[in-house]
Design a protein that fits this description.
Elements: H1 4-11, E1 14-19, H2 25-28, H3 35-39, H4 44-50, H5 55-61, H6 69-74, H7 77-83, H8 87-100, H9 110-120, H10 125-133, E2 136-141, E3 148-151, E4 158-163, H11 165-168, H12 175-181, H13 188-202, E5 206-211, H14 226-238, H15 249-268, E6 273-276, H16 283-286, H17 301-306, E7 312-315, H18 322-331, E8 335-338, H19 342-345, H20 347-358, E9 366-367, H21 376-399, H22 405-423, H23 426-439, E10 447-450
Parallel strand pairs: 1-2, 2-4, 3-10, 4-5, 5-6, 6-7, 7-8, 8-9
Helix pairs in contact: 1-21, 1-22, 8-21, 10-21, 12-13, 13-15, 14-15, 20-21, 21-22
């Protein structure tokens, strides 16, 4: 029988602070995943590769156009046998059992799961799965600067992060920036104008500013002068030797300058700043391309000191540098920490992180969940996984005499939604989105809303 704490955590409507969900039509339209590309289309495939599956076998596994489900799974069956007990594997098993009635994922069971998946991929099924089964209040999703087709009825459920990534890696020559802002960058002045135009267009309908530049460059930040940035603009746009390297001094200089301007603009529009820290995804596919020394959250200390009035959300518990992140949150009042994705990376480490955090930092600085998924089924699974491991963490605190049951339950509510409500202007942004959908049939950002009838012929990125 579930404990009082477990029952409470299982029924809180959770605020999901980080996702890559593309909305209803990516789930119910012609581009919808099949059972194998759903279960193994995102993080879990990396563990398969690390376990020994070939890149070709994983690519075939994820090929939804190939109807040979049994053959596709057979190529990774041996790897799955040893990878199923990781955090990623646990989430796959949760989705398979709860949603597709598969107790043991195998060649013999996968086809029956496909039929059950298709019953979930109905009109309105995406939000129903997230809101009613995963019990999510809403989703905050990072889709870069893409504009996505979305039913008008889902507008306030899928809130968008405003991506600063291209600016933060110094990629000012990326044509996506000009397309998104209408500004041709020729010098530092026009770079500033492009950033201002992006915020003017997108920030009023965004829930936060987001950057995951750690995938491309170091998190180390240095204050840059306008003169240095102007020289860097000329170097990058001039296309000289090495100017395309994200580790070049010119790109790093521009990234630092743009990150600072982004923080300032985020403040003007009252947006928290979400920053990826720690572990990188897809490392099984990237091989050795995870320079762990550059992923430490401590590299951000100069930025945190430079902008004491900004609201920073440091994501993914900076795994494996989690204690360093706790120290930052303890020292800087402008820092909150997000467990998004961390439960799936290493659920045991995340459980222990919660306990260490609560004994070092005021509990209003911790967010419990972000699904970091691309399909609602896996978002559901990650939510279930989080609730189970958070329950274990708080039950241990009670068993050890550090919390009463009531304090654990109240603390859980804070971690699952209360702290997020205090950090993000959720009601205000949802109101702004609803106003936008009522006055524009096809709004240019963040979604092309329609009346919510049926999926377009193909999902438009």
């Amino acid at each position: 029988m579930p404990s009082e704490i477990a029952d409470h955590i299982a029924n809180v409507s959770v605020i999901d602070t980080h996702s890559h969900l593309r909305g209803d039509y990516a789930w119910e339209g012609p581009d919808a995943p099949d059972i194998l590309s759903d279960l193994f289309g995102w993080y879990s495939s990396s563990d398969l590769i690390v376990a020994g599956a070939s890149l070709d076998a994983v690519a075939r596994l994820q090929d939804g156009g190939n109807e040979d489900l049994e053959g596709r799974f057979a190529g990774v069956a041996a790897a799955w046998d040893v990878a199923q007990f990781t955090g990623y594997g646990e989430a796959v098993r949760i989705a398979a059992r709860d949603l597709y009635e598969i107790e043991l994922v195998s060649e013999q069971t996968i086809r029956a799961g496909q039929h059950r998946l298709q019953t979930l991929q109905r009109q309105g099924g995406c939000v129903a799965l997230l809101r009613d089964r995963a019990k999510l209040d809403h989703v905050q999703t990072d889709l870069g600067l893409d504009v996505i087709d979305l039913p008008r009825t889902s507008a306030a459920f899928f809130l968008r992060d405003l991506s600063l990534r291209r600016f933060a890696i110094g990629a000012i020559d990326d044509p996506v920036i000009e397309a998104a802002t209408g500004v041709t960058i020729r010098n530092l002045a026009t770079l500033g104008q492009a950033m201002e135009a992006l915020f003017a267009r997108c920030a009023p309908l965004s829930i936060a500013l987001k950057s995951q530049h750690a995938y491309v460059r170091t998190l180390a930040w240095h204050k840059r002068t306008d003169a240095d940035a102007e020289r860097a603009v000329r170097a990058v746009l001039g296309g000289g030797p090495g100017s395309g390297d994200p580790q070049s001094e010119a790109r790093l200089c521009l990234g630092d300058w743009c990150l600072a301007r982004g923080v300032e603009l985020a403040g003007a529009y009252q947006l928290p700043i979400k920053l990826h820290t720690g572990y990188l995804a897809n490392t099984g596919q990237l091989g050795t391309a995870m320079p762990v020394d550059r992923l430490r959250a401590g590299h951000l200390a100069p930025l945190l000191m430079e902008y004491p009035n900004a609201r920073f959300v440091l994501m993914h518990i900076a795994y494996p540098y989690s204690d360093e992140l706790i120290a930052l949150a303890k020292h800087f009042g402008n820092v909150s920490v997000d467990l998004c994705w961390a439960w799936a990376i290493n659920p045991l480490a995340s459980k222990d992180f919660v306990r260490r955090f609560l004994h070092a930092v005021p509990m209003n600085k911790l967010f419990a969940f972000g699904d970091d998924a691309t399909t609602p089924s896996m978002a559901y699974a990650y939510a279930v996984q989080m609730r189970r491991w958070l329950t274990r963490a708080l039950e241990e605190e009670v068993a050890d005499g550090f919390l009463t049951t009531r304090q654990a339950m109240d603390g859980a509510t804070r971690l699952l939604r209360g702290n997020q409500l205090a950090c993000f202007d959720i009601a205000g942004r949802q109101r702004a989105v609803r106003d936008a959908t009522s006055t524009h049939e096809r709004h240019p950002w963040p979604y092309r809303y329609d009346s919510g009838g049926s999926a377009p012929e193909r999902c438009v990125p």
